[in-house]
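Objective 1b of the project was to move from sequence-level analysis to a structural picture of ligand recognition. The entry below was assembled by the postdoctoral researcher (A.K.) and checked by the PI before modelling. It contains the amino acid sequence of the target and the SMILES of the bound compound, S-adenosylmethionine.
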Amino acid sequence: MNNWNFFREAVKNFRSTGAIARASPVLIKRLISAIPSHVPLNVVELGPGEGCITRALLQRLHPESRLTAFEINPAFVRRLQLNQDPRLQVLPIGADRLTDHLAEGSVDFVVSSLPLSMIDQPVKGRIIGQSRRVLKPGGQYLQYQYALQDYGLLKDSFPNVSVSFTLANLPPAFVYSCSLGLL
Ligand SMILES: C[S@@+](CC[C@H](N)C(=O)[O-])C[C@H]1O[C@@H](n2cnc3c(N)ncnc32)[C@H](O)[C@@H]1O
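Corresponding predicted holo structure:
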């Protein structure tokens, strides 16, 4: 799926997609650069879309890692399922059902490009709460956003939150890195 097809899908489903273009390579690098390549990890991706971050994660992750992706748009799910990498499992369900599929304290990284500002408060609360619960004590929740609107929610949910910013995306984006601070 090229950028034009992503744009068409985004216009058709603007409320759930919340973007007009895919994440740029610079933004993707910034988002996932803390994830180590040399050890097997259990990684979750929320809102993979057509898979630009998924592909970068699969390139980066250790051969024995697992990547579980939650995506609600059927067109994006069909596209993601073309990927034959045995490490990837694509679940065509909402990110608020994380704990139906992942045990508490079992995940090293949750990588999210969900449009948090466009998701209803109760659903968003469940997504962040469940992300927290599935993370290992030393795990991290990584998220990019176009505004700081949900900084408060993340700060209330995770003891450690750091934010960086990149102009190299359309539009420019903030990258959150959140951890439980238990290790
Ligand atoms: C901004 S797009 C991100 C696409 C791609 N990962 C990127 O960064 O360019 C947000 C994605 O989140 C998906 N999404 C929105 N709400 C969701 C939810 N509750 N659960 C899972 N996916 C969701 C949308 O369908 C869309 O694919």
